[in-house]
Amino acid sequence: MSNEIFLEINQKQFKAFTQLPEDTPVVMLNLLKFKDRVTETGLSGAESYKEYMRQAAPFFAKADAEILFLGKPQTMLIGPEDEDLWDKVLIIKYNTISGFLGMVQAEGYPSHLRAQALEDSRLIHCKP
Protein backbone atom coordinates (compact mmCIF):
# COMPACT_ATOMS: atom_id res chain seq x y z
CA MET A 1 0.00 0.00 0.00
CA SER A 2 1.08 3.58 -0.53
CA ASN A 3 2.11 5.82 2.35
CA GLU A 4 -0.80 8.17 1.65
CA ILE A 5 -4.00 7.42 3.56
CA PHE A 6 -7.56 8.00 2.41
CA LEU A 7 -10.53 8.32 4.74
CA GLU A 8 -12.62 11.13 3.21
CA ILE A 9 -14.57 11.29 -0.05
CA ASN A 10 -12.77 12.86 -3.00
CA GLN A 11 -15.12 15.77 -3.69
CA LYS A 12 -14.27 16.04 -7.40
CA GLN A 13 -14.98 12.36 -8.01
CA PHE A 14 -18.04 12.46 -5.75
CA LYS A 15 -19.51 15.34 -7.76
CA ALA A 16 -19.07 13.36 -11.00
CA PHE A 17 -20.64 10.31 -9.30
CA THR A 18 -23.70 12.36 -8.28
CA GLN A 19 -24.25 13.35 -11.91
CA LEU A 20 -24.97 9.75 -12.94
CA PRO A 21 -28.65 8.84 -13.47
CA GLU A 22 -30.23 8.41 -10.02
CA ASP A 23 -31.76 5.02 -10.87
CA THR A 24 -28.40 3.49 -11.83
CA PRO A 25 -27.54 0.36 -9.79
CA VAL A 26 -24.15 0.54 -8.13
CA VAL A 27 -21.76 -1.76 -6.31
CA MET A 28 -19.28 -0.30 -3.84
CA LEU A 29 -16.00 -2.06 -3.16
CA ASN A 30 -14.58 -1.11 0.24
CA LEU A 31 -10.97 -1.92 1.12
CA LEU A 32 -10.42 -1.46 4.84
CA LYS A 33 -7.32 -1.13 7.02
CA PHE A 34 -8.16 -0.82 10.72
CA LYS A 35 -6.38 1.17 13.39
CA ASP A 36 -4.71 -0.95 16.03
CA ARG A 37 -6.41 1.10 18.75
CA VAL A 38 -9.01 3.89 18.56
CA THR A 39 -7.92 6.67 20.90
CA GLU A 40 -11.45 7.93 21.57
CA THR A 41 -12.79 4.56 22.73
CA GLY A 42 -9.86 2.31 23.58
CA LEU A 43 -11.36 -0.32 21.26
CA SER A 44 -9.52 -1.88 18.36
CA GLY A 45 -10.31 -0.50 14.90
CA ALA A 46 -11.93 -3.82 14.00
CA GLU A 47 -14.21 -3.63 17.07
CA SER A 48 -15.08 -0.02 16.26
CA TYR A 49 -15.89 -0.94 12.67
CA LYS A 50 -18.27 -3.65 13.89
CA GLU A 51 -20.06 -0.94 15.88
CA TYR A 52 -20.21 1.25 12.77
CA MET A 53 -21.77 -1.63 10.82
CA ARG A 54 -24.28 -2.25 13.62
CA GLN A 55 -25.33 1.41 13.71
CA ALA A 56 -25.31 1.70 9.90
CA ALA A 57 -27.50 -1.39 9.39
CA PRO A 58 -30.82 0.53 9.51
CA PHE A 59 -29.45 2.99 6.94
CA PHE A 60 -28.40 0.11 4.67
CA ALA A 61 -31.89 -1.36 5.00
CA LYS A 62 -33.59 1.95 4.19
CA ALA A 63 -31.32 2.32 1.13
CA ASP A 64 -32.27 -1.23 0.05
CA ALA A 65 -28.57 -2.14 0.12
CA GLU A 66 -27.31 -5.70 0.08
CA ILE A 67 -24.00 -6.77 1.56
CA LEU A 68 -22.62 -9.15 -1.04
CA PHE A 69 -19.36 -9.95 0.73
CA LEU A 70 -17.47 -9.12 3.92
CA GLY A 71 -14.27 -11.02 4.50
CA LYS A 72 -10.55 -10.99 5.18
CA PRO A 73 -8.10 -11.27 2.29
CA GLN A 74 -5.87 -14.30 2.76
CA THR A 75 -3.28 -14.75 0.04
CA MET A 76 -1.87 -12.54 -2.72
CA LEU A 77 -2.05 -14.87 -5.73
CA ILE A 78 -1.32 -12.15 -8.30
CA GLY A 79 0.63 -9.15 -7.13
CA PRO A 80 3.69 -8.25 -5.10
CA GLU A 81 4.46 -10.71 -2.31
CA ASP A 82 5.64 -7.96 0.02
CA GLU A 83 2.47 -5.84 -0.25
CA ASP A 84 0.32 -5.78 2.87
CA LEU A 85 -3.18 -7.10 2.37
CA TRP A 86 -6.18 -5.07 3.51
CA ASP A 87 -7.77 -6.12 6.80
CA LYS A 88 -11.24 -6.53 5.27
CA VAL A 89 -12.97 -6.34 1.92
CA LEU A 90 -16.61 -5.27 1.87
CA ILE A 91 -18.79 -5.30 -1.24
CA ILE A 92 -22.23 -3.68 -1.07
CA LYS A 93 -24.84 -3.46 -3.83
CA TYR A 94 -27.26 -0.54 -3.97
CA ASN A 95 -30.21 -0.75 -6.34
CA THR A 96 -29.85 2.95 -7.13
CA ILE A 97 -27.28 5.70 -6.78
CA SER A 98 -29.99 7.79 -5.13
CA GLY A 99 -30.32 5.10 -2.43
CA PHE A 100 -26.58 5.27 -1.73
CA LEU A 101 -26.56 9.09 -1.72
CA GLY A 102 -29.60 9.25 0.53
CA MET A 103 -27.93 6.88 2.95
CA VAL A 104 -24.58 8.67 3.28
CA GLN A 105 -26.28 12.07 3.53
CA ALA A 106 -28.98 11.00 6.02
CA GLU A 107 -29.12 12.64 9.40
CA GLY A 108 -27.62 10.33 11.99
CA TYR A 109 -25.64 8.19 9.55
CA PRO A 110 -22.59 7.07 11.62
CA SER A 111 -19.82 8.03 9.16
CA HIS A 112 -17.77 9.32 12.10
CA LEU A 113 -17.53 5.75 13.45
CA ARG A 114 -16.24 4.50 10.11
CA ALA A 115 -13.55 7.18 9.98
CA GLN A 116 -12.68 6.63 13.63
CA ALA A 117 -12.09 2.90 13.09
CA LEU A 118 -9.96 3.12 9.96
CA GLU A 119 -6.29 3.74 9.40
CA ASP A 120 -6.81 3.74 5.62
CA SER A 121 -9.52 2.84 3.13
CA ARG A 122 -10.63 2.78 -0.49
CA LEU A 123 -14.20 3.14 -1.69
CA ILE A 124 -14.50 2.15 -5.32
CA HIS A 125 -17.68 2.62 -7.35
CA CYS A 126 -18.20 -0.38 -9.61
CA LYS A 127 -20.77 -0.85 -12.34
CA PRO A 128 -22.64 -4.15 -12.12
Characteristic key phrases:
single chain; about 130 residues; alpha+beta; 4 helices; about 25% strand
Textual characterization of the structure:
With 128 residues, this protein is of the alpha+beta class. It is 32% helix and 25% strand. The protein contains four helices and four strands. The chain has helices at 11-18, 45-62, 97-104, 111-117, and strands spanning 26-34, 65-71, 88-94, 118-126. A four-stranded antiparallel sheet has the order 2-3-1-4. Helix 2 runs antiparallel to helix 4 (111-117). It is globular. The two termini are 26 Å apart. The model has no long low-confidence stretch (mean pLDDT 93).
List the strand order in the largest sheet: 2-3-1-4
Quickly count the helices.
Answer: 4
The span between the termini is 26 Å
- Which whole number gives the mean pLDDT? 93
Main beta-sheet annotation: 4 strands, antiparallel
**What series of H and E elements makes up the topology?**
HEHEEHHE
- Helix share of residues? 25-40%
Strand portion: 25-35%
Question: Brief overview, please?
Answer:
The chain has 128 residues and is of the alpha+beta class.
Layout of helices and strands:
Elements: H1 11-18, E1 26-34, H2 45-62, E2 65-71, E3 88-94, H3 97-104, H4 111-117, E4 118-126
Antiparallel strand pairs: 1-3, 1-4, 2-3
